[in-house]
Predict the structure of Peptide chain release factor 3.
Amino acid sequence: MSTIQQEIAKRRTFAIISHPDAGKTTLTEKLLLFGGAIQTAGAVKSNKIKKTATSDFMEIEKQRGISVATSVMTFEYNDLLINILDTPGHKDFAEDTYRTLTAVDSVILVIDCVKGVEEQTERLMEVCRMRDTPVIVFINKMDREGQNPFDLLDELEQKLNLKVRPLTWPVNGGATFKGVYHLLEKQMYFFKVNKTKVEDDVALLELDSEELDAKVGARDAAQLREDVELIDGVYDQFDREDYLSGKVAPVFFGSAVNNFGVRELLEAFCQISPLPIARQTNVRLVKPDEKNFTGFIFKIHANIDPRHRDRIAFLRVCSGTFERGKFYKNTRLEKNVRFSNPYSFMASAKEVVEQGFPGDVIGLYDTGTFKIGDTLTEGEELQYAGIPSFSPEIFKELINLDPMKSKQLEKGVQQLTDEGVAQLFTVQPGNRKVVGTVGELQFEVIQYRLEHEYGAKCRWVQMNTTRACWVTSEDPKKLQEFIRLKGTQIGYDKDDNPVFLADSEWMLRMNRDNNPDIQFHTTSEFK
Ligand code: GDP
């Protein structure tokens, strides 16, 4: 194996996703404890926004601005270098999460055993399915009285359109939770309330042994045997290839806060999860072990401190070796750029790195030139596909309140939307600026940041639009005609793609039906 192949084989880059409160932060922390990246519980700050209030968000952004370390957490375990990409929990920032999902090779989905599949779980899984991202499911909070595990699995299959395969199985739940039986290892892991230690109480127990009765109790042992028989009857044997192609999700049970079931999850993750994979660009599939470096920007983090306007762009390395100080081409701008202080996120501290390999995430200082989705190469003309924008749901027109500051406003809106805080559409006549988001909170955030970072004041005027669809046609004339007829119902996104702005689902449907030559797309990813 060449050096680069060895480096690739060591890397695992993934995200933990969940509906807020299911236990994502807790699980992240326990994983980091195993990896020795942190020493104490409570070290990982939740990025959760408790109230839907701007001040709360700003507080968090401030903390994160100072230590962006929580955006990517890297730790070593079993000779692997594991990168966890953090995703915001708040619904209004779902787009940020979707984009982060384009930069990972797999995900762990956390489900609360009491609540089952929740709204945001469904949305997040839709994005994973767009790319056949491999998923491991962790059913959390088994120390609570939850739903029947078979019912939970049925719910996962139905609501998430995902085949599952349990690899551990709980013995009871709630107050009488005894632990989980590992179906492949044939070991019983006994549950103890244990918040900090990392040892397990494990016993190798054959299902048909008398020892199982002795240790687990005759009644529970009988139930376990019955359950396992049913599992083997209902679910296919676990096949790693099916997991890697996104067809089957292995399922683990545990209790993150008690550090229970986490080690089995991590061990399995190390064994089965994918290495950095080949990725699609607009011209060809790029393999990670190619000689030349390529990568893309999936996230831009503003420095909230107005005295330091620089931003941090997060680069996912896709192929070759990234080197500090070397010139790379930003293929969107046709411009060569180099980075003298790129850094990694090892041990939750920023460290300048000399090199980066596929799977790595590198922080680059940016003075406002990057846009989400930008691709860096050693000169080759290609662009990574797959930083989708999703149809926003709330639309407001931006009104400038201080004509003396229109330049600042212009620049601010441009930069904030480049960061992906919201989407900007231009509507004619008059170059009106319309901002579209998936949550109300972003409008407050933009207003606040325009004022504090750019010195520009604005107000919002609510629009009737509730749906936006990118429009294309095989016949350019027909598209032009459609655009002309729709007039002010057409906006242009930042890349000048036409977008149809509809007041209602009904209006959208009517336009779809009446214009069979026009294609309507709910994400910008339609090439
Ligand atoms: P996130 O919003 O998904 O990041 O969720 P958190 O990790 O912040 O957890 C939400 C709440 O659930 C916190 O109060 C945790 O202490 C609690 N929690 C996490 N894991 C467990 C668990 O296994 N059992 C119980 N009973 N509570 C848990």
Q: What stands out?
A: Residues 18, 20-26, 46, 48, 89, 140-141, 143-144, 255-258 surround guanosine-5'-diphosphate (CB under 6 Å).
